[in-house]
Amino acid sequence: MEGLASSTEELKKNVEHHEKKMMMKKKKKKKKKERLGWIEWLRGWMYVIHEMLFQRIVASHLQNPMPLPPINDLTCIVTGSTSGIGREIARQLAESGAHVVMAVRNPKAALDLIQKWQNEWSGKGLPLNIEVMELDLLSLDSVVRFAEAYNARMGPLHVLINNAGIFSIGEPQNFSKDGYEEHLQVNHLAPALLSILLLPSLIRGSPSRIINVNSVMHYVGFVDTEDMNVVSPKRKFTSLVGYSSSKLAQVMFSSVLHKKLPAESGINVVCVSPGIVHTNVARDLSKIVQAGYRLIPYFIFSPQEGSRSTLFAATDPQVPEYCELLKADKWPVCAFLAQECRPTNPSEEAHNVETAYRMWEKTLEMTGLHSDVVEKLLEGDQITCRYGADSIEAN
């Protein structure tokens, strides 16, 4: 697949533009930003609408399903893999030879799926190498237990795909038992904690990748590090605010993690947009919007189409080179691949390095980790977390 490295110069120009704007803002000494400006908000929505209307055209060069190279030597964890995009990702990786770990809240549903896939695959080759491990992203204790159980195998992990997410459209604000707004926890805090705690296995699997399935909706998101749960009166909570903010937080966290992982670790961090996809999120939509989904099938991707950017990010050999190139050029955000499997520029707000680092520290605080957790794990030291059991170590 062409177009990764060739996009770097264009992205550099965009970064220089953003840096100049940030410098101007600092000189003006404006008060703390509390929300997106209306121009940024409008620009973000224009981007969302453009993606919905033209995603099928810009991705017309991609095959469906996406052909994958033989990946018999890869071990991949896929969260949220019993439905939607995650289901397609897990199945296609397994059919290409990977050892797939389905990290799911409902193990029985996953086991039923595996049996179905094995029956359909019978006679086409070796049995699919898939297993199930329980993971509930609404419980940070569950995240720690999962990571400890996987790390205890002392085996490699080559690809972690943080796919699971929620968008509870129209629902009132809900909080997990850990006390965090559910969009924030499922879409950002739990995947962030999982990514860090699995670093020992990712180091053993080096070169390895962390793939975060993001969303074009991060373009209309805003992160207030003093109000991550969106409970203060200055911002009214809606499911859209919760979702878009959590997805922007994920991009920011990924960018800082990308910078903190040295090249010699061999671990790369990538965010991907699957496009606008018809998945189980439609179950939470109003009947009118669901009718709209059925009326515009041409514009909306199927889960199989929506899985392509993630599968590309997980398997294409150019992706690590591209990530390292961005790191060498001090690109302020991690690699971000659009639904057509080409580099794209995350939102202007995602380039706010100062906010990203504040959000990183806040995320570590909320997940019970110390600020030097990445450095300690890279050195093979034990780390502690207030959730789950007592400690996790690199080897």
From TrEMBL:
* Sorted UniProt keywords: Oxidoreductase
InterPro entries recorded for this chain?
A: NAD(P)-bd_dom_sf, SDR_fam
**Pfam families membership:** adh_short
Q: Where is the composition biased (Basic and acidic residues)?
A: 9-22
Extract the ranges annotated as region (Disordered). 1-29
Q: List, in alphabetical order, the Gene Ontology terms for molecular function in this entry.
A: oxidoreductase activity
Superkingdom of origin: Eukaryota
For this chain, the family text in UniProt reads:
Belongs to the short-chain dehydrogenases/reductases (SDR) family.
The record's annotation in PANTHER family points to:
DEHYDROGENASE_REDUCTASE SDR FAMILY MEMBER FEY, RETINOL DEHYDROGENASE
Q: What is this protein called?
A: Dehydrogenase/reductase SDR family member FEY-like
* Organism per entry: Cucurbita maxima (Pumpkin)
Q: What is the lineage of its organism?
A: Eukaryota, Viridiplantae, Streptophyta, Embryophyta, Tracheophyta
